[in-house]
Structures are given as C-alpha cells and as structure tokens.
Amino acid sequence: MKSVLSIFAMGLAAGLLACASTQETASSQPPPSGIISEGAATATAIVEKIDVATRQVTLRNADGKLMELQVDDSVKNLPQVKKGDRVVVKYYESLAYEVNAPGAATPGTAGAEQVATAAPGSKPGRVAARQVEITTTIEAIDKKTAMVTLKGADGSLTPVKVRDPSKLDRVRVGDLVTITYSQAVAVAVEPAPK
C-alpha cells in the first residue's frame, strides 16, 4: 500500500505545481498555498423495489434509468426502507496544498478515516470521510525548462512540468510540499413524499 500512496503523492504534488494559481508575485512573499480544486455533488434516486430477504434494491435515478443493487450487511436498518423512499447521496472532495520551508514538516504520508451509520430502528444512512496528507520534498528546480523534481519519502524522484513558471520564484530546493486530499460521502434514505 505504501507504493500506491507514494505514486498518489507524486501525482498530487504534480497537480499542485501544475494547477497553482496564475497570480504573479514577488519572491519575497511566502511560498504558495491554497486550494487546487474543490467540488460537491448531490444525486437522488427513488426506491422502486426492495427485497429485504435477498437484500436486492432497485432504484430509479433522475434520468429514469433503473439500477439494481445488492446491498451488503454493512447497511443497517434495511427493513425500514419502503418503495417510494428517496436515496440521497452527497459527495464532497477537495485538494489543498502548502509549501513549507525545510524543517517545518516531515516527508511522508498520513491518513485518517471515519465512518458513522444510522441509529438502530431509523432509516439507513451512512457518512464516511477520509483525509490523506502527503508531504514531499522539492529536490531540484530547473527554471529554463519549468521543471521541478520531487522526492518522495521512499526516495523516488518524479519530474513535474510546472504550468506557471512564475511560481518557481517562490519555492526553493529543500522546500516541502504538503498535499491534503479530503473526501466525504453521505448517504441517507428519506421517507417517500406524502
């Protein structure tokens, strides 16, 4: 799993340097930080059919298409779901970055995940959130080619083409790039409208 996270770290760091804002600043300003991307979406479907014994649920999405799902045992309170109920899924994710001076952070990967489910006897629901934080080191900067080489905690080197070369005036070899990826999903079942 660490190799997958290292690849993920390099990809996120590449995104950082490629997607940083295009605002030009003097080199005396602090290193760049901010949100690279952020998004949220909501989807709703109606329960068309449910078989509690086999845990099969048929949903109709907003386009009218039917989806058959096999609901696993982690979904509690399935007997509370009725035909006509609404299933609402909300999704959020963000990707933020911060460049730190050497010694202000430690290269590596950290993560946390939390899950909560509905109380017994209520309609099913689940909220899951996770956050992955990856810190990598700027190993080399080539202003002529607008390339930065990033060094992962495992020692691997990844060259990255920088979209906005003016950002190179605000970073130095040895600086640490911390990428924070956050994701949250909430699923709720609401009673059918009266």
Task: Describe the fold and architecture.
- The protein is mostly beta strands and 194 residues long.
- Helix content is 9%, strand content 51%.
- The protein has one helix at residues 2-19; strands at residues 33-51, 56-61, 66-70, 86-100, 108-117, 125-142, 147-151, 157-161, 176-190.
- Strands 1, 2, 3, 4, 5, 6, 7, 8 and 9 form a 9-stranded antiparallel β-sheet that branches.
- The chain is elongated and about 65 Å long.
Low-confidence stretches: 1-27
Separation of termini? Answer: 48 Å
Mean pLDDT: 84
Helical coverage, percent range: under 10%
Give the count of structural domains: 1
Number of strands: 9
The shape, in one word, is elongated
The description of the largest β-sheet is: 9 strands, antiparallel
| Radius of gyration, CA atoms, in whole angstroms | 22 Å
**Total helical segments:** 1
**What pattern of helices and strands is seen along the backbone?**
HEEEEEEEEE
> Which structural class fits the helix and strand makeup?
mainly beta
Strand content: over 45%
Short description, anyone?
The chain is mainly beta and 194 residues long. The chain is 9% helix and 51% strand.
SSE inventory with pairings:
Blueprint: H1 2-19, E1 33-51, E2 56-61, E3 66-70, E4 86-100, E5 108-117, E6 125-142, E7 147-151, E8 157-161, E9 176-190
Antiparallel strand pairs: 1-2, 1-4, 2-3, 4-9, 5-6, 6-7, 6-9, 7-8
